[in-house]
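Hi W., the iron/sulfur cluster complex you wanted:
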Amino acid sequence: MFRIRFHGRGGQGMKTASRILGTAFFLEGFEVQDAPRYGAERRGAPIFAYVRADKAPIYERGVIDRPGLVIVADDTLMGVSAAGVMDGVDAKTVLLVIGGEDPEIWRDRLKTEARILTLKSFVDEETSERPYVGAVCAGAAARLVGVVSKARLEEALTQELEEHGKTVISKNLGRAREAYDTVADDEGIIIDVPNMPPAEPSPPDWVDLPLDPADVASPSIYATATSVQVRTGLWRTMRPVLEPDLCKKCVWVCGSLCPDGVISADADGYPEIDYDHCKGCMICVVQCPPHALTAVPEGQAQGEIEAAEGAPP
Ligand code: SF4
Ligand code: SF4
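Structure:
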């Protein structure tokens, strides 16, 4: 059975990538499961989707805990433990990272025995954007499993994106074909494991439940303002940056439309963004009437801040 997990951020097309790959497997005569997993968060939050494919009926259920292939659409997720990218990854797993680093660097950082591949050419060097990255992931996965032809991949992608029209299909097809060709040297490296025995459940440790009152035994539940400790700003790939000359100081507009409530007015009436908790959904950028907010790639913004901080007074 092939077990594949796609990791990315909300809005990057991981659910669509899993559907495209699942449909391509199906067109090749496989039994298939594909499913996404995401929580209540929206654009920018870590999500994953997974595909199982086998020539025999599939009785496994639930999230894939020992994947044969893990594809990471956004390498900034590698440092987010909540994303679970490395869950179940072992020496038999192939890890494909869409990003600018070399495999050796990831191997050293992750201390993993997994085989690591990277795709650099699908990331725009200047903006860090990854156009049509869902199609890139589906195309690369189809070639790596070694049992999906390019024609079936194209057919599946066209079916899954049918409602988006010819232009969108054509652009996604281009990226999927490019990825399919790029990983040609590694065609078929994913291990098809027929019957993976379930992991041995470890016996539970004995847990003493204290009889203290709940506010003493579970102080974190009773504590106030704990959500502030979740730095959702780490999810951000694009940063809203204010151009003060264009700003009309109508903070009730951007401030009330920000879904995370992280825009407040400063002493001069200008919007002040809490970047520790701005997740980069870009709603404020789209909604600002005079276009005083601009979306800047996070890497570029960080570089400009560091350069400004390092500049002599
Ligand atoms: S909506 Fe735009 S113009 Fe109004 S305060 Fe916010 S950034 Fe400034
Ligand atoms: S400040 Fe803007 S980009 Fe950040 S979370 Fe709020 S609306 Fe989204």
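The chain is about 30% helix and 15% strand.

W.
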